[in-house]
Amino acid sequence: MSITSALLAAQQTATPLAALVNDGCHAIGGVFRLDYNSAVVLTDDFRKKQAGGVPHGGFLLAAAGTQTAEGFTLDDEELILLRVRGTAPLPNEPDLVQTRLAVVRDAGDSGKGFDEVTDELTRNELQQSAFDCEVIGTFYTSGNSDLVEFGADIDNVVSSAKYQVFLPSKKVLSWLASYPETGEDDLLPLGVVRFSSTRRRARASGIDQAEVRVHIDDFVARKTAVFGMTRTGKSNTVKTIVTAVHRQSSLTDARVGQLIFDPQGEYANINDQDKTGLRLLGDTADHVRVYKESPDPSEAVERPLRINFLDAASLQTVWAMVQQEVAESASAGAQYMAGFRAVDFAVPDPKDVSAQSHFERNRLAFYALLHRAGISGPLPSTRIMLTNDLVTEATTGPKAIADVTGSGKYAYVKTTAAAEKLLDWLKSQNADGKLTESWKRDFDKGELADILKAMEGRAGDAAIKRLKPFHDRNAIGDIGDLVWQDMLAGRLVIVDLSKGNGTVVKTLSERIVTTLLDRARDDFAAGKKPHPFQVIVEEAHNLFERGAKEVAGNPWVRMSKEAAKYKIGLIYATQEVSSVDQRILSNTSNWLVAHLNSDNETKELSHYYDFKTWAESIRRAEDQGFVRMKTYSGKYIVPVQVAKFDHDMINEARRASGLQPVDPAKIA
User: Fold this and answer.
1) Which end of the chain is more exposed for a tag (fewer CB within 10 A), N or C?
2) How many CA atoms lie within 13 A of 364 on its CB side?
3) 3 state DSSP class of 452
4) Is the pLDDT of residue 4 over 60?
5) Which of 395-414 are b and which e, b meaning 16 or more Cβ less than 10 Å from the residue's Cβ?
6) What is the band of 332 on the pLDDT scale with cuts at 50, 70, 90?
7) What would the 3-class secondary structure string for 432-480 be?
8) pTM assigned to the model
9) Contact criterion met (CB below 8 Å) for 487 and 563
10) Closest listed residue to residue 634, CA positions, set 132, 136, 33
11) How far apart are CA 330 and CA 420, in angstroms?
12) Strand 128-140 vs strand 38-44: parallel, antiparallel, or unpaired?
């Protein structure tokens, strides 16, 4: 070769894409049939062995070009990305089968080895095989730019004999799995590439250490699904993502708030086995808050997951809890339940005197019922409008009701005990015909009547008593508003829902989400810049199941529709793809799928992206932390062994927050 030719070849091997195939990639064969969707790659046993094996689902790179002494030169500055989806028959497959049968028979009859009953030419022919490959897309450069772009198809097919096929090296595989790596500031090493459950050859060739990096911003203010059976690493994946977002928000001073609904208590507490836990990301409530039913006063990050049932700010939340609890215990055919569920404790316009009067009557009844169930104490300002004569009779003289004062036509109730006594007195006055027509209608068939009917007898008392552990007279404010303030401050918030019945868990969760959406909506309408935050939900099938209420009544479906414009992200983990509302699945940007044991689940999954290619592998491989991942910026599905959540991750995040690292040996 002349000097000019050698220099030209050296330049051609140094182009961005040629540099990839020349960076330790193994040539395993060539393409002998190619169309716009698939390719058949001819290879042989020797080349596969030299390359360290070609796994099912593995990436291959097809390039049109020539092998020179300086390296492989490209005829065109593009590479076709292929994925192995199986084997393909060769054109002479019937002849090869007959030959293989003869070899097996002759070796068996003679007691010799296979190589001893074949000549070298036959052995070479028998080693030929082919891969059936899916065309994923094309890597290419434009003009003089070194920027590598990707297209999800191919725009031309040349003679297939021109294409040579390469198995990526560890470095190139990492590049493929992490594409596109635009900037280094927000990249998270999530794990390593893993194509199969069996990893012997991958370990021998070092391919099992090909790092996968994802953009943390892909997970902020977007929806992420984490699917998998129990004990397949869903929680580990969630912890890794949450920690990375926490670390990145500290480094960039963006302070992205994250809210975790924790049904099992695994996020709110330290793991006894490895002494890790998300609560270790902070030492005080400035960074981490853990809301629990029974917080430990000595733990700075813990706060009570309780509500002051008598606080006006908590009225709607408490009422929703009581409504749900009574509905769960009532008979299915109870006619009064429809009216009871329709009662709304939203505060009316103060200028609407009629609405305000009905609201105060309903609130009086509710406080009276709380007292009867054992929840008592001073009340916020509760003003009942009566006639002047009735107010005087109720507040003065020998039959005056304790803790009820009057002024003109208004009676003011100061305690729950007074509310119960005043309500009983009003019932007697109604029976004697002394109340106004408006009062009579409310007692006969209005919302007041619906409340009293639903709470009659022991069922109502029992329902409220079951909620009593969540009452704390020292709690201040609505839980939803408290969490909203946490999100604005960029805290990691864990709501421990492991204690309490399912009704309370669901009601509290929905109330918090509704409040967050309402506050975000109000800010959006006011023209304020959205403040991004994340909501993380475990056992998501229990909260937003398929066939649930319509958007107006379901905060989770509402979140799937509205959250994007408010910059609210959602990470939901479940083992049942089919149970999640399709409106949520259709709006999901990131997918991490571990083992699922049912073809019903993988069939549902196959409706999205090209998960159909991975369906069989997802059902068969039960390895912990082995997921198939599609991210918002990622162009194709990548199989990943997610890194184990550990103290190194925790301490990196702590250092980013300006905190000292934790010593695992000193964690109780």
Assistant:
1) C
2) 31
3) helix
4) no
5) beeeeebebbbbeeeebbbb
6) very low
7) CCCCCHHHHHHHHHCHHHHHHHHCCHHHHHHHHHHHHHHECCCCCCCHH
8) 0.82
9) no
10) 136
11) 23
12) antiparallel
